[in-house]
Design brief:
Blueprint lengths: L18 H15 L4 H8 L3 H10 L23 H12 L7 H12 L5 H10 L23
Helix pairs in contact: 1-2, 2-3, 5-6
Length: 150
């Protein structure tokens, strides 16, 4: 005969949540349980009472997925397509090697027909670990030497 203990379902605490998200879950669960009023929960989370009521309806005991946004984990719809990112990296390491970010952006838009912002080119290059190439710049002027008092 095995002795089984009936256990209450424990909330599935996911390590992907921030401290603020976990606090939100706790306050809403307290509001559902009646430990906190809607008005107090609204004050604690700096939300309107209407939003607290909406979150209470979504809340399910023992589960925290109700709080997760539906788009979480999905790529942004405006993200630069992987094919364009790969082409930028390929050209920056091949034909246009040695150009800095602004020069590369100008060549990509004028010669290659890739319509993309300069900042996006910079971001793609930095995410791949490539730093911007800088020219030699202007020669530095030496500071004047102090004159001796006569």
């Amino acid at each position: 005969m095995s002795s089984q203990v009936n256990q209450q379902p424990q909330p599935s605490v996911n390590t992907e949540y921030t401290a603020d998200e976990l606090r939100r879950v706790q306050v809403i669960e307290d509001a559902v349980a009646g430990k906190v009023t809607v008005r107090e929960a609204a004050r604690l989370l700096q939300l309107s009472p209407r939003q607290i009521k909406r979150l209470k309806q979504k809340c399910r005991a023992g589960d925290t997925d109700w709080m997760r946004h539906g788009n979480r984990g999905r790529p942004k719809p405006w993200r630069t397509p992987d094919a364009v990112r790969a082409r930028i990296l390929e050209l920056s390491q091949g034909r246009y090697q040695g150009l800095n970010d602004s020069q590369l952006w100008r060549v990509l838009t004028e010669n290659e027909g890739i319509t993309i912002s300069r900042e996006t080119v910079r971001r793609v290059l930095r995410q791949s670990g490539r730093a911007s190439l800088r020219g030699p710049g202007r020669p530095r002027r030496e500071a004047p030497k102090p004159q001796e008092a006569g």
